[in-house]
Design brief:
Shape: globular
Radius of gyration: 17 Å
GO molecular function: kinase activity
Order of helices and strands: HHHHEEHHHH
Number of helices: 8
Pfam family, one: Mob1_phocein
Number of domains: 1
Keywords: Kinase, Metal-binding, Transferase, Zinc
Protein name: MOB1A kinase
Helix content: 40-55%
Strand content: under 5%
Structural class: mainly alpha
Largest sheet: 2 strands, antiparallel
């Protein structure tokens, strides 16, 4: 599945050659998390996404969520990287997902009071913030035997909630560009995988998913 995407993307993106928006986050080869990622990729290849997101038998839930969160960051990074030239200060002066949903940025440390900013600025803040969380060994330990912190689940939920907003923005504001690049199948598969995953473990509040409610219903009904 992922191998196919990697070979397709340079072709689809022309001279951009699968540029990611931020540096890709790699899971160290040979680690248990790397094995989990390989398991996830193998089950994704079966085409049954509902089954692919389930916690593998005997595995730690935190670790499974950590591995998948890194993978979604990389996927969204790549998807957004292909449309950055269409998402500009002038085309997207506010970070929105359709006329009813607008997002203001705050990270609780550097920017405590939510600020209104353009979509490219917001997504830059968001992806940089996610990257910082993923690189923090106390939050996302990559070494075997190092325990996950007590607040891991709430951090993971915040990351996924924010990553969802990038999908929502792409679907609402840039789907025509995605179609022109013939990347809609890639976007839809990635988003479906993401939604099935967050639904399986109740990681994002339904209200947060409202901007793409109809699409989520459609994706779910096809799999019942």
């Amino acid at each position: 599945f992922r191998g196919k995407l990697e070979t397709l993307l340079p072709f689809l993106s022309g001279s951009r050659s699968s540029k990611t928006f931020k540096p890709k986050k790699n899971i160290p080869e040979g680690s248990h998390q790397y094995e989990l990622l390989k398991h996830a990729e193998a089950t994704l290849g079966s085409g049954n996404l509902r089954q692919a997101v389930m916690l593998p038998e005997g595995e730690d839930l935190n670790e499974w969520i950590a591995v998948n969160t890194v993978d979604f960051f990389n996927q969204i990074n790549m998807l957004y990287g292909t449309i950055t030239e269409f998402c500009t200060e002038s085309s997207c002066p506010v970070m929105s997902a359709g006329p009813r949903y607008e997002y203001h940025w705050a990270d609780g440390t550097n920017i405590k009071k939510p600020i209104k900013c353009s979509a490219p600025k917001y997504i830059d803040y968001l992806m940089t913030w996610v990257q910082d969380q993923l690189d923090d060994e106390t939050l996302f330990p990559s070494k075997i035997g190092v325990p996950f912190p007590k607040n891991f689940m709430s951090v993971a939920k915040t990351i996924l909630k924010r990553l969802f907003r990038v999908y929502a923005h792409i679907y609402h504001q840039h789907f025509d560009s995605v179609m022109r690049l013939q990347e809609e199948a890639h976007l839809n598969t990635s988003f479906k995988h993401f939604i099935f995953f967050v639904q399986e473990f109740s990681l994002i509040d339904r209200r947060e998913l409202a901007p793409l409610h109809e699409l989520i219903e459609k994706l779910g009904s096809k799999d019942r």
